[in-house]
Write a structure and sequence with these properties.
InterPro entries: Alkyl/aryl-sulf_dimr_sf, Alkyl_sulf_dimr, Bact_Alkyl/Aryl-Sulfatase, Bds1/SdsA1_MBL-fold, Metallo-B-lactamas, RibonucZ/Hydroxyglut_hydro. With 466 residues, the chain is an alpha+beta fold. It contains 14 helices and 17 strands.
Length: 466
């Protein structure tokens, strides 16, 4: 088996919680780039757990970040006569606990709330912070555009969201969400949302709030309505979801509109130009120290741009998304950076998203212009194998050899055949999905495989398994 091997290195959380040395880590085999031996996958995900260990991190004399109170981070900036809150978590329950923890450092009134972007895990708990203080609430002009404007597919996106984040997985199945803990309190989603009262213009804004000099920089990336916050005196940068300790989610498998990858890279590059002493991500631990923080941002920007550039070169060379998804890699100087490991985003998924975002679904190959419908293709696959029984035997053989991706693909053909055992195909797919999940250190992939397997097993999915 041909494997790429990470050299011996140490995974270090940015505030020195602990060190985990990963030895001879194999990547890039099987069907994806994020599959390793099950023990290694679990060890990596457990190590990543340190990135959202619950607590308050002091990042400057007057700046405190609450990590692990929900999936995202929230930050309190203490001024002369009040405090500023940047992002408000998912709902008032989690936000209330973070607000109580902040009050150990200041009991001043909340003068302002700032939304870095409009994802629900950053905006749903404002009321718990505001109380009776009636703060100003800042957001960009395009606030609310995080998920695109098409609501027609919200029903299926909701199902896929549950799978990606493993919301229905048991305690024995769930690990984490890549950049967030599992088992968060989600029942009060959005119930504490407070609408913006002050709009940050496209050119940004420099102002003083509660005696604190603060800059708002509009910076599209994971969302079109994103901005980062810069505290020039403290040299602290609050990045929102344009940076966190994982390869970025340039495409989310729950289903998202195209995320402008080039703009994302440029936005992170602008952050790096400020040479912050601390970068506070939207998720995961702050990175402290000018060299560490600035280098991380430069590397992040370079990684995104490299994936984009490689994909564009491949497109213009006539290559399709399937081929490019297996060819594009992070540059060697970035492949072992702890904040670029594919715990959340995935290079192959990013490549496919870039392709579709730039060219649409058609790969230029006339063979794929009008392909057979699935049932017809399944019959032809059976004929090629020597009949339905032979195709079923090939499916079972792939599973026995732990060739899980091939077993999945064959089960999807077998399920369409009228003379095949559909229940056997379903069982093969369930086993193969769990086999793939065990090897995944990419949390969304792992969660999706397990969630789908459970839905198949319970009978929740239709006979067509969608």
């Amino acid at each position: 088996m041909n494997m790429n091997i990470f050299s011996r290195r140490c995974y270090n959380s940015s505030i020195a919680l602990s060190l985990l040395c990963l030895v001879a880590l194999p990547v890039g085999f099987a069907s994806g780039q994020t599959q390793v031996e099950p023990e290694t996958a679990l060890r990596m995900l457990n190590a990543q757990q340190q990135q959202f260990a619950k607590g308050i991190v002091k990042v400057a004399d007057n700046v405190f970040t609450a990590v692990g109170f929900h999936g995202a981070n929230t930050t309190m900036i203490v001024g002369t006569d009040g405090v500023i809150i940047v992002d408000t978590l998912f709902g008032p329950t989690s936000a209330g606990k973070a607000a109580d923890a902040f009050r150990e450092y200041s009991d001043q009134p909340v003068k302002a709330i700032i939304y870095s972007h409009s994802h629900g895990d950053h905006i749903g708990g404002g009321s718990a912070f505001a109380g009776d203080d009636h703060p100003d609430i800042y957001a960009t002009e395009s606030f609310g555009s995080a998920e695109g404007v098409n609501k027609a597919v919200d029903p299926v996106k909701a199902k896929r969201n549950v799978r990606q984040f493993g919301r229905n997985l048991s305690a024995s199945e769930i690990t984490n969400r890549g950049v967030a803990p599992a088992g968060t309190e989600d029942g009060d989603r959005g119930k504490g949302f407070l609408p913006p009262t002050i709009t940050v213009p496209g050119e940004g804004l420099k102002t003083t709030i509660a005696g604190v000099e603060i800059e708002f920089h509009v910076a599209p990336g994971e969302t079109d309505d994103a901005m980062f916050i810069w505290l020039p005196k403290q040299k602290v940068l609050l990045a929102g979801d344009n940076f966190y300790s994982s390869f970025p989610n340039l495409y989310a498998i729950r289903g998202t509109a195209y995320r402008d990858v080039l703009s994302w890279s440029e936005s992170v590059g602008k952050m790096a130009e400020l040479e912050p002493h601390v970068v506070v991500p939207g998720h995961t631990m702050p990175i402290q120290g000018q060299e560490a923080a600035t280098t991380a941002l430069k590397d992040y920007s370079e990684a995104i741009r490299s994936v984009y550039d490689q994909t564009v070169r491949g497109i213009n060379a006539g290559k399709g998304p399937d081929q490019l998804a297996h060819e594009v890699k992070l540059p060697g100087n970035l492949s072992d950076k702890p904040y670029l490991i594919e715990f959340y985003g995935s290079v192959p998924h990013a490549v496919r998203a870039i392709y579709v975002g730039l060219l649409g679904w058609y790969d230029g190959n006339p063979t794929t212009l009008n392909p057979f419908e699935p049932k017809v293709k399944a019959k032809k696959m059976a004929e090629l194998a020597g009949g339905t029984s032979a195709l079923v035997a090939k499916m079972q053989d792939a599973l026995a050899k732990e060739d899980f991706q091939w077993a999945l693909e064959l089960s999807d053909h077998v399920k369409w055949l009228d003379d095949a055992d559909a229940e056997l195909a379903r069982k093969v797919k369930i086993t193969a999905l769990r086999g793939l999940a065990a090897k995944e250190y990419n949390a969304p992939n792992r969660n999706y495989y397990l969630s789908y397997a459970n839905e198949l097993e319970s009978g929740e999915l239709s006979e067509l398994w969608f």
